[in-house]
Amino acid sequence: MDGMTTPADVHDVRDPELPGRLLAVERDELVPLLRGRADADFALPVAACPGWTVRDVLAHCAAAFTRVRERRFEEGVFSPEANDRDIAERAEWSDQRVVDELERGMTEAGPLIAGAGGALDALALGEWVHAGDVREALGEPGAYAGAGLPYALTLLAQVTGRRGHLPLHADLDDADEPLRLGDFSGERPPARYIGDGPTLVRLYTGRPVHAAAYELAGVEAQELNIFGG
């Protein structure tokens, strides 16, 4: 993460190619990691997703990308019930078939997300976060970090800005420039975060921050969660 740069006002203009770049970078790191794992590793529990195994999380992500590719967005899509059905539909698949579907999705979904006008940007961010969930379950370093972090932080700023999320000024240990997240219309004074990028991602996605050193002022941590946890 040395030399990472993240412009302060990236949320002002959507970059339609950004979700695809994030997914491509993560694909190139995550898929080889998964190909080298034993079957037992796919059965490990994922702390961030109670009741789900590594395989379940990967099947959920793969199914989500397939829905994007096939433009299947029926009522209730991505609800807990729909997610469970997607996972169940893949119950008889081999682990590597699930990885195959995931790899294809991470490769092909980018242009479709780009053309959706921002409606699916949060999906790309969420799938990247799930990759971090998997890394943590596997005991791999770099959960919610890695080469995709600069893209993820930029996308997080854009998503929170469009959603009118509470304003926050983040001074990141691992970035050259501060990051502004949420709605800076002036209706609410911005909260302040000082710490590293992965911890900020954890806070915004309801993941445990463990013993990470950070400062947060003007907002409670649970108010940041963009996924409603």
UniProtKB/TrEMBL annotation:
Q: Which Gene3D superfamilies match?
A: dinb family like domain
Q: Which residue range or ranges hold the Mycothiol-dependent maleylpyruvate isomerase metal-binding domain?
A: 25-108
Q: Which GO terms describe its molecular function?
A: isomerase activity
Q: Identify the InterPro entries for this entry.
A: DinB/YfiT-like, Maleyloyr_isom, MDMPI_metal-binding
Query: Which chain regions cross the lipid bilayer?
Result: none
Q: Which domain of life is it from?
A: Bacteria
Fetch the Pfam families from UniProt.
Answer: MDMPI_N
In its keyword annotation, does this UniProt entry include Isomerase?
yes
Q: Which UniProt keywords apply?
A: Isomerase
Entry protein name:
Maleylpyruvate isomerase family mycothiol-dependent enzyme
